[in-house]
Amino acid sequence: MTTTAANDRSPNNRARTEPSDSGHIASPAKPTAPAPAPGPAPERSAVEAALAGLPRVVDLLAARAEEHDRDATFPYQGIEAVHEAGLLTLTVSPRYGGPGGTLADTVQVLTQLGRGDASVAVVTAFTLLQHAEQARRAGWPTAGYRRLLTESRRGPALVNTLRAEPGGRPDALPGTVARRDDDGWLLTGRKTYCTGAEALAWMAVTARTDEPEPRVGTFLVRGESEGIEIDPTWDQLGLRASASHDVVLDGVRVPVELALGLRTPGQEDHAEAELARAWQDLALAAVAIGVARAAEAWLVRFLNQRTPANLTEPLGTLPRYRCALGEIEAQLIGAEELVHGLAPRVDRGDPDAVARTGPAQLLATRAATAAVQQAVALTGNPGLSRRHPLERYLRDVLSSRVHLAAEEAVLDAAGRAALGSGARP
User: Fold this and answer.
1) What interhelical angle do 76-84 and 54-71 show, nearest 10?
2) pLDDT for residue 133 is more than 90
3) What's the pTM value of the predicted model, to 2 decimals?
4) Which regions of the chain carry the CATH code 2.40.110.10?
5) Acyl-CoA dehydrogenase/oxidase N-terminal domain spans which residues (predicted)?
């Protein structure tokens, strides 16, 4: 077990670790030009400006992705680029001075970031989801959230919810315990699959109290708090730069005002939970689609350039390869239409759309995985060589399963919903 020094993980140090109208009424005596059409609302302008910077950011991420994957090092420079483009705070609500990016905006961003570096995209996703949740229900206390936004103006301020525990079941009480004393709460426990662990400015830790009748809530913890250790357990096939390590909490002190939503089990806000899950479903599916689009782009270049010794034209001229590429394209069109079509409906509050994001995520991720696998099969040995990025795309899309709901749970829920629907007249 290793401990990351607090000053190395402070927001300021992390951010610097690597390079970084009014019109008037015209006189009736003079003809005037037509009044200009009103421009977009200020917050949409901010969203559009951030989206305009996506291509440059994607190129920067792609340039360093292989290095961070090989060495399993955290992509601080990539996160800095995402932050500087205004993408890391895209979903901050206008009432807090943010652009108010929607789920539709979010999936657009994450699809593109996934083309550059899947690890950066996943880390970005969880921070965007935190800001989006605050925009919907303002769970953070005002002072605490203002502090986070202040940090976000200085540099990247990453946030994630630490929920998963080693051996934990989705329906079980958290093993992480919060003990009350005169000065607040003391947290003790271990969380796993904590994406971005070593670079988080804030951790939203789910825990149960040690009261006779335990309550469950979320405790906001500063990333450099005393008693936090990062156990570097993340050694996965793919997403190697995401630093999804274990976080060990040993008597970590949390002020009373940073203990959020304490309630007895079974009193959850199910509507909000479903909406939060819908955002996560589509956000992470978008990352997988982005990875598959990067794989397809590499395959297209390969087929246009590769001319085997027994041929006089590139492989792309052969109908068999064109049809196989067409199959990949059809799979990805279907996945994109599904995810990018559902997102605006969720933004409009369509309950049917919210209920469908789980199966949509499953189908989109399956399609992305199948597309990359087929690309590898078409290219043979070059597709498996570490000299080329295709094998990394395959590893990343396979490892994305770690952050997704279990297929059995998604399918069981879909089956139950179908049975219930069939029982109604």
Assistant:
1) 170
2) yes
3) 0.87
4) 177-263
5) 61-126
Secondary structure element (H or E) that encloses residue 263, with its range: strand 259-263
3-state secondary structure of 73: coil
Percent of the chain with pLDDT strictly greater than 70 = 89
Cβ atoms of 301 and 307 within 8 Å: the answer is no
Residues of the chain with CATH 1.20.140.10: 270-423
Identify the bridge partners of residue 205 per DSSP, sorted by sequence position. 162, 219
The CATH classification number of 7-17+41-156 equals: 1.10.540.10
The boundaries of every CATH 1.10.540.10 domain in the chain are 7-17+41-156
3: left (phi over 0), alpha (psi -120 to 50) or beta: beta
Instruction: Write out pLDDT tens, residues 62-120.
Output: 999 999 999 999 999 999 999 999 999 999 999 999 999 999 999 999 999 999 999 99
pLDDT at position 162 over 60: yes
CATH number of 270-423: 1.20.140.10
Angle at which helix 103-116 crosses helix 118-137, to 10 degrees, equals 170
CATH topology classification for 177-263: Butyryl-CoA Dehydrogenase, subunit A; domain 2 (2.40.110)
Taking 90 as the threshold, does the pLDDT of residue 17 lie above it? no
Q: Which among 198, 193, 195, 201 has a CA at the least distance from the CA of 121?
A: 195
Q: Which pLDDT belongs to residue 24?
A: 32
Phi and psi based region of residue 100 (left: phi greater than 0; alpha: psi -120 to 50; beta: remaining): left
Q: Which long-range contacts (CB under 8 A, 24 or more apart) does 372-375 make?
A: 372/291, 372/292, 372/295, 372/397, 374/324, 374/327, 374/328, 375/295, 375/296, 375/298, 375/299, 375/328
Kindly state the tokens that stand for 359: 């199966």
| Range 2-18 burial, b when 16+ CB lie within 10 A, else e | eebeeeebbbeebbebb
Cα–Cα distance between 145 and 138 in angstroms, integer? 9
CB atoms within 10 A of CB 294: 27
